[in-house]
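Encode chain A's predicted structure.
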Amino acid sequence: MKSIENKAMNTQLVNNTNDKCLLQTADGSWTIHIPEVEETYHSRHGAMQESMHVFIHQGLHHCSAEPISVLEVGLGTGLNVILTYLNTHKSIDYHGIEPYPMDKKLVEELMAKSESYAQLYRYIHFSPSQEVISLSDYFTLKKHPIKLLDFETEKLFDIIYYDAFGPRVEPTMWTIEAMQKCFDLLKPGGIWVSYCAKGEVRRNLMVVGFQVERLSGPPGKREMLRAKK
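Encoded structure for chain A:
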């Protein structure tokens, strides 16, 4: 079996192609589709259901810290920001890593399709990067247009939402080096959570020191992973 590191890489194609369009998923919510590599930003079985199950129910709601510092790796459409904002009464300091921000025209199309969240999408995507913006008195957001391994901060986080493209198309995001970076960015007892449940990813998490759980996945996926520092 080939390791993650040795798989053919489609990373540049996925991130740089202009061939992206909106796709309505099975629960009625919208995601981004990349036809050239048959990849989507979220599950076709339900973008909203997947994000709620993985990042909110199995991630955020298992974090006992208050306030909570969140790091999302793979900000994408910003759906996880919105769901975190809507599903906690705790103070949130949210940081999102996204080296390839969405095209503004595609953001506007997403806003038109998701009217109830349009203003939140506007704040997320049209606000300046590297500046702290307030979505409310208890929720701040800072975007970092940089790759994970280049991200430097003295801040440590309570939880990492790991929502990068999967190992098939972005293998470098799932290596031991990437998992070590995540481990180093978390506070003791911090949580790492992802939709991905591949055996090699689980083993890489364990190699760097995480305690790893396999949990029931969202609709369309048998399992997901949650890890604790």
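The chain has a mean pLDDT of 92.
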